[in-house]
Amino acid sequence: MSAKHILVIDDNEDIAEIICVTAKSLHMTTTIAADVAGFLAALTPEIDLIVIDLKMPEMSGSELMDLLARRRSTAKIVLMSGVGRTALGQAERYGRSLGLTVVGSLPKPFRVGELIEMLNR
After folding, report:
1. Which of 21, 27, 40, 63 is the least crowded, having the fewest Cβ atoms under 10 Å away?
2. How is the chain split into domains, by residue range?
3. Pairing outcome for strands 76-81 and 49-53
4. Residue 99 and residue 32: Cα distance in Å, rounded?
5. DSSP state string for 11-79
6. 114 to each of 31, 110, 111, how far by Cα in Å?
7. Distance (Å, whole) CA 74 – CA 101
8. pTM of the model
9. Superfamily per CATH, domain 5-119
């Protein structure tokens, strides 16, 4: 079995780096995108899991999920944000209503154990 490929979109470099280091410790390959252009450039069929920050400067997480649905993405999706669990739950339901495979969400700040659980889904 090949290593899992993860794409992270987050404008917070520290959070993205924590995800990247954690994924590498699990023998996963990670690409970080700090903006939508980088995200679109890195979005390939080889991506198994996408970690999306719901609050991005140029496009919301919901808009990113709309884009993924239009592209018929089959990657699993983990949502994260500091907006609160209620908003995260609503975003999860919205993503699933689009036909996306949303496997869960992480509130910011998150515990590394929670992150590992999400990465292994």
Report:
1. 27
2. 5-119
3. parallel
4. 24
5. S-HHHHHHHHHHHHHTT-EEEEESSHHHHHHH--TT--EEEEES--SSS-HHHHHHHHHHTT--SEEEE
6. 20, 7, 5
7. 7
8. 0.93
9. Response regulator (3.40.50.2300)
Which two tokens mark 109? 């700040």
> Two tokens at 78?
């983990």
**Tens digit of pLDDT at every position of the chain (121 positions):** 456 999 999 989 999 999 999 999 999 999 999 989 999 999 999 999 999 999 988 888 999 999 999 999 999 999 999 888 899 999 999 999 999 999 999 999 999 999 999 999 8
CA distance 117 to 120: 5
Q: Which two tokens stand for residue 115?
A: 């992150």
Distance spanning both ends of the chain, measured CA to CA: 15
CA atoms within 13 A on the CB side of 37: 0
